[in-house]
Here is the input.
Amino acid sequence: MKTFYRSIFALLSFTTILMAQDDAELNELYKTEALRHQNLIRHYAASSAATEWIDAKYYKLNIRIADQKGFVKGDVAAVVIVRADSVTSIPYDLMSALTVDSVFVDGVKTTVIAAAKTIEIALPATRYQGDTVTTQVYYHGYPPYTGLGSYSDANAADMTRWVYTLSEPYGARDWWPCVDHPTDKADSIDIWITCDQSLTGVTSGKLVETVQNGDNTKTYKWKHRYPVATYLVAVTIGNFSSFSDWYKYTEYRNDIAVIQKQRSADNWYAGYLQSDVRRVPVHRRKVRTCAVRMEWWNGASDAHVAGIVLIQ
Here is the structure.
């Protein structure tokens, strides 16, 4: 019997040692990966066009993803405020895989210098602190795939085209020109997505108009009216089935429900690849649960006005 217990004790001790060894190896792996990503973030942050002497206030992204796979074409209008004196150029982040066709400042065509990860737009005249400048950049090309998958253009399970962006932490520059840094948040943004008429283009905010073009494409016009960092600007295109729903929220004060909000703009839209449409009832319940918890923790949020967009 003693021999049996000794054997059990030895086995447990050996298992504990192996588990401790595994934990140590996992911890070392976590540290290595964390350090690698920290270095990656520092690298991109150091090469960002973000600067204290301009502040991006508004973007209008007009992008066409309707041609050969992987190819994008578009133009981005931006409104920036000058925060210094004697400014002679406006910098944006944009990867060299994308070609700039032309640039305009306040409607006047001007020149641009392109580097590996940035572009520098020459101002026709020197600008000073407090001045508002509107730029427009026309561009095209094949966005690279970096970070967590900044831009992907592939096929869904039903073999239809499926495009999505995931720009964390500094991947927005891979597919559109902007001041690509989390500290520089635009107050609002409009996003127009042109794609094949059989597909649906979705992004953050509210869908305000859908235009049927004469070339077998549709343009989906979305607006977003809350501060947003560039890495949170996302676009997805696919063969989606969609539905909408409502969540009526209650305002809490000292954990007591005192005001029942009437049905207003607190709607949410969900799009599902048609192969996943069977999951709609499950995710509908999950979104409602999330909305209740967000309200309980944070009170009324932007989602109660702007809505929630869910893509599966």
